[in-house]
Specification:
Radius of gyration: 14 Å
Strand content: under 5%
Structural class: mainly alpha
Helix content: over 70%
Largest sheet: none
């Protein structure tokens, strides 16, 4: 899922639908999710509460990617 979200971020950047600031925010969010997952897995497994939390984090990131890609920003528009 993370790889798919990364792909959507870069597609939005290449198509000009995302600003560099939006990309930075989304990348930071993805990094935060990866670090949280690593901390949760430090004991060797994910319990159902940790999986649910990661899923909520991914859902939130997914909504942000969609919102930024569809906020009608275009290069050169002021």
């Amino acid at each position: 899922r993370e790889a798919y979200q990364q792909q959507r971020i870069y597609q939005g950047l290449r198509a000009g639908r995302l600003t560099p600031g939006e990309v930075r925010h989304l990348e930071h969010q993805q990094r935060h999710i990866r670090l949280a997952e690593a901390r949760m897995r430090s004991d060797g497994h994910l319990n159902r509460y940790e999986r649910a939390r990661l899923n909520r984090m991914e859902n939130h990131a997914n909504r942000n990617i969609y919102r930024y890609n569809h906020n009608n920003w275009r290069p050169g528009w002021h």
